[in-house]
Amino acid sequence: MQGTSPSRTEIPADLPAEFVLADEMGWQAAGSTRPNPPVGCVIVDSAGTILGRGATEPAGGRHAEVVALQAAGARAAGATAYATLEPCNHTGRTGPCAEALIAAGVAEVHYLFADPGKAEGGGGERLRAAGVTVSGPYLEPFHLGEHRFSVEPWLRAAYLGRPHVTLKFASTLNGMAAATDRTSQWITGPTARADVHADRQYREAILVGTGTVLADDPQLTARPGGVEGPRQPLRFAVGQREIPSSARLLQPGAHALAGQHLPTRDLEAALTTLRRQGISDVLVEGGPELAGSFLAHGLVDEIRAYLAPAWLPRGLPALGDGGIGSTSITDLQRFATRSVQRIGEDILWLAQRQTGD
């Protein structure tokens, strides 16, 4: 694992090396900043010495640039800042980060992605107008590089107008998620299962169907090392079937808030509800029916698949057909591979919907 980032991949070599630390700072905030993006920032002097670093604080708190500026103090004058998102140019609960950088006397600013917000964007131009040397954006929001940056789900949600959806599933080589009699709970090994809990820590929300709640009664909490940690996603069940009030998803945990039931089969409506709660990043961990429905409605933006080197003659499929009948090749949905990594004895495949699909 690279620092605190769950991506496990090297940052592209053609990017300034300071973005490595800036992104690590962003991952420290991931999952805790909604509705704001989990930005990271680092400030260095002309010799590359780190003067300050920062990550976005929970809503109402300081933005990453301000945290880094306050750590650098007077040394920020004449220094260079690297941020994973264009400094904001908007006064909300806090003042504009662009103005804070100007007031501190920062001489140069590099940012990784442009801010698409109508009110928040434009920080780069504001900095240039004040005489600051500005470089950015270095990447497009739907880039297909192997490395996953902490701000990507938030950024893509801003363009999509709904939460960014990652579909997670585990399967055998022939696509089975469980035996027909459910005699075995686990398809993948302990390293892959631990990785699932590590990934949950950085998610804003997890969503399953009511069928999964009734069949498996999952907790859906992040339990790295087997213990519920302080970083917890919001938990949701979607579907019209009633679920018992005793369901573990609905119970608060040591750090997790009580989950919510969204009594609808309309997935777009469910995502709209989540968006209204400030959620930009949703991990779908439901069964084959829910997974197939998300795919059939074109609502899957990223796939996180754990593939076990195992074969099960017959079983329960990891992915359903979404209720679609006969198909033609025009119904094919393509995803682009971002990375393939070995996780213990299993393989983790990360893929992203191709732009325009």
From TrEMBL:
Pathway: Cofactor biosynthesis; riboflavin biosynthesis; 5-amino-6-(D-ribitylamino)uracil from GTP: step 2/4; Cofactor biosynthesis; riboflavin biosynthesis; 5-amino-6-(D-ribitylamino)uracil from GTP: step 3/4. Substrate binds at residues 184, 200, 220, 223, 285. This is Riboflavin biosynthesis protein RibD. Keywords: Hydrolase, Metal-binding, Multifunctional enzyme, NADP, Oxidoreductase, Riboflavin biosynthesis, Zinc. Its EC number is 3.5.4.26, 1.1.1.193. InterPro entries: APOBEC/CMP_deaminase_Zn-bd, CMP_dCMP_dom, Cytidine_deaminase-like, DHFR-like_dom_sf, Eubact_RibD, RibDG_C, Riboflavin_Biosynth_HTPR. GO terms for biological process: riboflavin biosynthetic process. Residues 12-134 form the CMP/dCMP-type deaminase domain. One of its GO terms (molecular function) is 5-amino-6-(5-phosphoribosylamino)uracil reductase activity. Its cofactor is Zn(2+). It comes from Corynebacterium urealyticum (strain ATCC 43042 / DSM 7109).
